Amino acid sequence: MQDDRQMDLALWRYGIISPLLHRDANDVQLCEMLAVVSQSSYIHPHDGRYVTLSAEAIRKWLYRFNHGGLGALCDKQRSDKGTHDVPAPLANEMFELRLAHPRWTLSLMLRELVERQLWDETRPSRSTLYRFARNNNLMLLRYCTLGLPCLKIHGTASPPS
Q: Which InterPro entries does the record match to this protein (predicted)?
């Protein structure tokens, strides 16, 4: 099933770059054709939504196809996907900080973690901590009905069980 979805995506991408592959030497230059192709909207094969593509994305697909064929137009799974964990003491402290300081930005929370020597600003990375905070409803919502910062209402901030 996943292979079919990947092949659908590769064929869709091929359809978009096809005019660039089969152009005549007397046609307009590649950069001009990229600009024209990127100005169109395309229906994404997986969810049916209209998408616009940057000329750079299309250029990369063209490069990938020229160097690897149709298979190179499939998405590859990130090699580091799922390998970054937030240690339990750090995660618990983030939950406690959010409960104690619901109006703090995540940046302030991270600064506090550094001051408490629970995080060395390197491992885990800042982006990992932001992703963890987003996935666990620890982000500060920028607006509220009263115009004051408040926690997200979707779920409550609580440590994982």
A: Homeodomain-like_sf
